[in-house]
Write a structure and sequence with these properties.
The chain is about 65% helix and about 5% strand. It has about 280 residues and is mainly alpha-helical. The relative contact order is 0.18.
């Protein structure tokens, strides 16, 4: 079975793929703002449901982005741990009540209010991560650069991001090829050896990978310089597409989500929905 590159464009026949890069970028920005603003559990549940619908519509399989989802899960776990270690009573302060479930030691107690607060934090991240991954997995790198330019970002920055996304699959493929070549020469990179031995053997892969990446950078930079890249302040984009009806409908949906988010969140003057009152 062919390997799927991490954070690379995955071509599928879906409604999400048919949208322009500008639409997907604006939707992602508005969606992220809506998620960051609110701590209202009801809004977050609605956004979670909508993000699940969007993920299903995209036809991107979970296994295609399983590695990144795993890393996101580790980050989420560590984030919750650090929040609890440095502010174990922050939920109590927010919701103005205290229901102790378990006493650990000293100031560290597990309260229902703290668990509810960290549940909301977790939901906020879960709302954004799938949409962010879909934006990358469903947008061609060239169109991604064009979409950044369409909202006012310098095309030099957009092109740099586009090149980075474009070469992630190449670097991953190069890493796989070098790893197989080194293992054919007798260098064991499996989990059988000790950690220090595996780290030392990994240098046999990283050094050639870095050198090949530097050669690739020099080749690309020379090609761009020969073509006069950066001479003018603006440029045209071959992959830039015009907005269609579905694009406008998605933008209206994004605006509606943001408006509902603001109305429900600040209806009582607080960002936090308090079920303990």
């Amino acid at each position: 079975m062919a390997k799927v590159a991490i954070l690379s464009y995955i071509k599928r026949d879906s409604l999400v793929h048919e949208l322009t890069g500008t639409t997907k970028l604006v939707f992602f920005i508005v969606w992220s703002v809506a998620s960051m603003i609110t701590y209202d559990t009801r809004v977050l549940i609605g956004m979670l449901f909508l993000s699940a619908v969007i993920f299903y519509t995209s036809r991107v399989r979970v296994r295609d982005i399983s590695v990144v989802l795993g890393l996101a899960g580790i980050f989420l776990l560590m984030n919750n741990l650090f929040v609890y270690l440095f502010s174990p009573e922050y939920g109590v302060e927010i919701y103005q009540s205290r229901t102790v479930l378990l006493t650990i030691a000293g100031p560290y107690t597990i309260t229902l209010q703290q668990l509810f607060y960290q549940l909301n934090m977790t939901m906020k991240v879960i709302c954004v991560v799938p949409v962010a991954l879909l934006f990358i997995a469903c947008t061609d790198p060239s169109e991604f650069a064009a979409s950044l330019a369409s909202i006012g970002v310098s095309y030099r920055i957009g092109y740099s991001v586009s090149l980075a996304l474009r070469y992630i699959p190449d670097v991953q493929r190069e890493y796989h090829n070098i790893s197989q070549a080194q293992q054919a020469r007798g260098i064991d990179l499996s989990g059988k050896d000790k950690l220090f031995t595996r780290l030392k053997n990994s240098v046999a892969i990283l050094l050639p990978l870095i050198l090949s990446s530097l050669n690739r950078i020099e080749t690309v930079s020379n090609a761009m310089e020969l073509r006069g890249f950066g001479k003018n302040k603006k440029r045209t984009w071959y992959s830039l597409r015009k907005m269609q009806r579905n694009d406008w409908m998605v933008l209206i949906l994004a605006l509606a989500v943001l408006v509902i988010d603001l109305l429900v969140t600040f209806r009582d003057g607080s960002r936090f929905y308090n079920p303990f009152l």
